Amino acid sequence: MLPVGVIANSVAVAIGGVVGAAIGPSLPERIRTSLPTVFGFSSCLIGISLAAKVVNLAPVILSMILGLLIGELLFLSARIENGIRTVQKKLHFELGDADYMERFTTLLLLFCASGTGVFGALTEGMTGNSSILLAKTILDFFTVIIFASTMGRFLSVIAVPQFIVMLTLFLLARVIYPLMSADMTADFSALGGILTMMAGFNLLRIKQTPVLNLLPAFLLCPILSKLWSMVF
C-alpha cells in the first residue's frame, strides 16, 4: 500500500517552500503579513476541533505535564534548534535571528507533529484512506508558500523530517492502531489538537510556548489513557 497522503504532503511542503521564496519579493506586503494570521487562526480552529473529541481529560493533561518536564530536562527544544542550525550550515543557508528560529520551530511542529498529521498518517497506514492527509496537504502548501516568502527556501527542509515522521507512523500503524481503543485514539488526537492550538498561538504571538518540549507527551498519552481506563 503506497503512502499517497504522506508523499503528497511532504512534496507539497518542499515545493511550496521553493515557490514561496521565489515569488516572495513580488507579493504585496499586506498579503505577506495578513495571511499568516489566518493560518494561525486556522491552526487554532483545527486544534480546538480535535481537542473537543477528548474522552479522558486527566491523562491528556498529565501526559502534557510529564511530557513538558521530560522535554525541559532533556533540553529537547534546544537540541532540535541546534540540529536545525547544523543542517543550515551544511546547506549554506543563512538563518535570521532568534525570532526566525522561533517561527521555524513552530512551523516544524505544525508540519511534522500536528494532530491532523499524526492521526492522518495512522489512519492511512491502517485503512489506506488518505483523505485527511490530502486535506492537510492543501493547507500546508499555501501555508509554507506564505511563510517562505519572508523566511526563504530553507523552509523546504521541513519536508524531510515531516516525511520521516509520517512514514514511520504509516509503517507502524498496523502495529499501533489495533492496540489503541477508541478512547485512546480520541485522547491521542485531542493531545495533538492541543499542541496544534499552542502552535497557532505562537504564530499569532498570543502566547509563546516551547511546544517542542511537549513532544514526549505523544509517547505518554496512549499509555496513561489506557491505564486511566483500566483504573476508572
How does this model look, in words?
It is a single chain. The radius of gyration is 17 Å and the shape is globular. The chain has one domain. 42% of the residues are buried. By secondary structure, it is mainly α.
Brief summary of the model shown:
By secondary structure, the protein is mainly alpha-helical. The protein contains ten helices and no strands.
Mean pLDDT: 83
Structural class given helices, strands, pairing?
mainly alpha
Percentage of helical residues?
A: over 70%
Order of helices and strands: HHHHHHHHHH
Uncertain segments: none
Distance between the termini: 38 Å
The counted number of beta strands is 0
**What is the rounded Rg?**
17 Å
Tell me the fraction of residues in β-strands, as a range: under 5%
Number of domains: 1
Please tell me what the overall shape is.
globular
Transmembrane segments: 6-23, 35-55, 61-80, 100-122, 128-147, 154-176, 188-204, 211-231
Pfam families: DUF554
InterPro entries: DUF554 (IPR007563)
Protein name: DUF554 domain-containing protein
